[in-house]
Design the sequence.
């Protein structure tokens, strides 16, 4: 008599496993002190505090670092289906300055995913909820290449809507 | 009898003075080890080497740091008229991966400048001249606010073409 | 004895007056058969049907016309404060093809407005609610220049949030 | 004794054949009166004159139509390798207004092409050579699907550089 098959992992469990794998090796996000606050299938929230060494010549947080935070949130969100996925590009609007000590939070949501390509919106806010930047990222998936071996990769799950409008 | 008036500074001299002012306080560019290789009115070239702590979970240089290099080149170029100018946004395409030890070079050129707004193209290449990323930046000038006091600010110089095509 | 002062127009009434002024002279939107379905302060919805003469060589609606619909929705939304406002640029993602006879609907919402510049998101869907395109537009206001004379221009109204996140 | 094999078509001959195929069915470009002035592998120039029915409520050429001209130039350029290729998206900056009677010319050049994706820059100028708009387009190729049957499709030719910098 054999044990019953275990239940397959849920999309949320897969997403959490990819977070571990991504975070373990992501030295870049660590350099900026980022924390992964939340993860889900196609979504994530990351935060970081603006440090002295992130300021530019105008004494505000370098827009490149605000973008790096958003890009990391994008990466965690689009890799959460356990299919190795890279950024093909993004469009960024810097709406307000971030200052020394500000706590920035970047939340990524999926707009569309179809074939190898996806579209994600990331919004960066400060500790007062003011919008610092918008980021719209274009992703490209390495079809069939899992991030974490032994887990379902890139699957569409029931209830997965192709386009959120 | 008084000494003759000194010649007014050339656009190139103004640009070099802004480079000093920008570089002195730009802790963010220093964190990534950037070097300003060249500066001119509306142009600049910056370089950096991909370090271990710039790699992401896929073991390639974080696209945010490639963007930060391009954004710094953009900032040096659009501030070179000695008028405080910030990035309003940019569109980035990541064309190839940058790896550990790669030497990246970002060159910025001005596409247009009119009123408070400007448009700049930055191309990032590696040590083999392969294009890693394109960056198109939108700038916004703080009219009449000089970066370096005592030098002409934001002036259009003879031969300054509004739009390069 | 004099009549009491009339109530000042509401933001919605101002928006509706700008729609009339915009639509009257907008020959371009008329060429494509666009209809203004809804207008509000910073928002609008426009629709159009894909005609035979809008198809490209691949027999689908030319992406430029999908973009023109989105750009018109953007224009109606950002001019609805009665301050002459033009498009500075936009980023477009074409997510699915639109076919002959499809009824397209473009809805614009304001993401931010500050000083002369604004940011608007437009989503284009077909008659089945499928997302055809996303459009993120950057606006530039001609400060103090009303679209309709005699009405408040560019005013911030109570409850007007600067950034929606 | 049989006749010698004919020489294979040159890239330029392939490009010219795709122009015929594209232009024959492109009703959208015809609606705006566009003319294909030049074609080559990865390049094209299209022109159009701003008509009364292309003006918007501000009495200037609708930015959507300027974009449509650029998008058509992009389409002719990226299909010139005889592989069916569609626009995935683009970033546009509108730099100056186009007026009634202006003759606009859009020139597309290839920035990169790799796998299924490509990047093209289009510049739109008026009859005085002033830059009206910049357009950076992202293409996506339907691998192995020729536009014109019987001609080489999507081939890389000798001397074809992957990235122009």
Sequence:
């Amino acid at each position: 008599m054999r044990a019953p098959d275990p239940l397959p992992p849920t999309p949320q469990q897969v997403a959490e496993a990819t977070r571990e794998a991504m975070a373990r090796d992501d030295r870049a996000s660590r350099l900026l002190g980022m924390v992964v606050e939340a993860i889900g299938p196609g979504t994530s929230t990351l935060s970081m505090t603006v440090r002295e060494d992130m300021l530019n010549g105008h004494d505000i947080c370098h827009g490149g670092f605000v973008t790096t935070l958003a890009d990391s949130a994008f990466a965690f969100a689009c890799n959460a289906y356990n299919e190795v996925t890279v950024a093909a590009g993004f469009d960024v609007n810097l709406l307000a300055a971030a200052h020394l000590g500000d706590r920035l939070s970047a939340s990524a949501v999926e707009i569309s995913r179809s074939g190898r390509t996806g579209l994600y919106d990331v919004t960066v806010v400060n500790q007062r909820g003011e919008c610092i930047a918008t980021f719209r990222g274009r992703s490209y998936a390495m079809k069939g290449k899992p991030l974490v071996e032994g887990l379902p990769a890139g699957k569409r799950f029931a209830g997965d809507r192709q386009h959120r409008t």
In short: The first strand of chain C starts at residue 35 and ends at 40. The interface with chain D takes residues 21-31, 52-59, 61-65, 67-72, 75, 79, 84, 86-94, 97 of chain C (CB under 8 Å). Chain C has one domain: 11-141.
